[in-house]
Amino acid sequence: MGIxxxxxxxxxxxxxxxxxxxxxxxxxxxxxxxxxxxxxxxPPAQQPQAxxxxxxxxxAPMQQVDxxxxxxxxxxxxGQQLNWRTSIVxxxxxxxxxxxxxxxxxxxxxxxxxxxTSDSASMNIWLHRQVMNKLAANGGKVPAxxxx
Length: 148
Hints:
mainly alpha, two-stranded parallel sheet, 2 strands, 3% strand
């Protein structure tokens, strides 16, 4: 998932399903596709084993990560005054990620922004809200005022 995946990796611990799933989604899909075509009789026997593995990560998102605490801690350590609560640029800077207009346009494309990317102010507001929503949807505890 590109930039959003990088955001997840910075906020969620490596063991958190959101961090793992964002980087393993493509390789897992590539590995599963050849198995049914190579051995059609064996995948039904392997699917029950895959089901518990799939249900284990589904149960893991219940373990919420306090996004506000993580980001406030990062801000304290950075010594910078960044307004991550309202600014996508400051959020990306705090996470040590590229906050350039081009990077934000890439993030907008990744999140299916349909507005005008030349209107960076509107795009930035939308991006910040969407990132907070995605964090919340993937096991992050996000303050209510920062999401839809």
